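Practice problem: predict the structure.
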Amino acid sequence: MSSFVSSMVQKVAVIGAGMSGLTSIKSCLEEGLEPTCFESGPDIGGLWRFKEEPEPGRANIYESVVLNSSKERMAFSDFRDGRQESEVFDAVMVCTGLFTTPNLPLKDFPGIESFTGKYFHSREYQNAEDMRGKRVVVIGIGSSGGDIAVEISQVAKQVYLCSRSGAWVVSRVGPRGLPVDMMYSSRMDQMLKSLFPSQSSRTIEKMLNNVFDHELYGLKPQHSISEKNTVVSDALPARIISGRIQLKKNIKEFRGSTLVFDDGSAVDQVDVVVFATGYKYSFPFLPPNLQEMSGYHLCLYKHVFPPRLSKPTLAMVGLIFGQGSQSPLAEMQARWATRVFKGLARLPTKEMMLDKIATLTGTMHQRYACYEGTPIQVKYMSYLDSVASQIGVKPNMALLLLKDPRLAFQVLFGPFTSYQYRLSGPGRWAGARQAIFSQWDRVVRPFNKKVDPKALKIRMVPKAPSSVVGMVLFSSAALLCGSFYNT
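Answer:
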């Protein structure tokens, strides 16, 4: 184990005041550290601070953006609703994110220099006002590309959405009009997906095709739904079936205002091309020896710590993707990093970390469709549990079953939310138990403020069993789940 004296770290530099930076500052304060935040912009918020004009080197969002995650899944675990200076710090937390350097692969599009219209990266997109009456091509079918295409299609003459590989499209709204990410995200759901991965993927794909036939709509991808993040869009299928958006293959070449596609078709008189082609890894302030790569991503232990530092005084927070909200991932990384800085949690040896990184990188590339645009993909719940174990805050299902069966039932069968990581251990929050029991109340509150949510009788999680047989079955499931998550 690497040796580290807690008294050596007191002052921590946090680079970036976005979501990851803010939760890192909070984690530093919780551990009694002294954070100083460096932010190149004029205000906090990072990616989520809307800017009228895109600023070079800073993340940006468009005016009509809608979060992919519901508010309960996005919530932090204990909170729900010109001058230059030089200073020496004991530790640094890099929280600049992955959305600052646009990936604009113009070399992959022969003839782009002959294009007579306007082209730009999606980072520069604000709203659709300048697209009225125009022919617009959107390249890339991630969530941003889908959202931008949908919005532009409301005013443009025609929108063409280009995709190399297609995508599985998921609505934010599930059965009964409730947030879909609150309905199929329990620990029991995840255990079944892990035990029966192929069958689970086929079942989910069948459910999505029952909403709309992805092959008929020209969206069916070659990859399984478990191999790549889905496109979250409520309106894309409706815009396709209405003809406002046409799906096209990848662009073969530009010929002036004409775009020729891989299938031989062409579109004439194109006015605007939007490149929704993702972002590049870019950390120009890091020395070269800390930019070692493992696959498509930085060589980091559990995607946080560089393994070759003699002392763990640098942590990368928020540089990760998973099929879930980013907030809990960044928060968990920040909680762990500050514990390591103080010497309250220890890292393995350099050799053990490098070996683990190599193994996990190989597994990641086998399991997911990783590439430069999406360099890191993790199993969401498993990753959070893995880091939580380093802190000592992962829910102990067997102990919960003995001490608080009702809570154990909610943790096992209810929506997987970050409150679970404040039930015990460092940073325990007294309100975590109530937050878990009341999370559905907060979900339905906006529907009718005059109606008690309990009166709506929304029981997405069944009542805990009261019979002897029911309790035996539940206990067996809880112990099985506990054993599964402790492996």
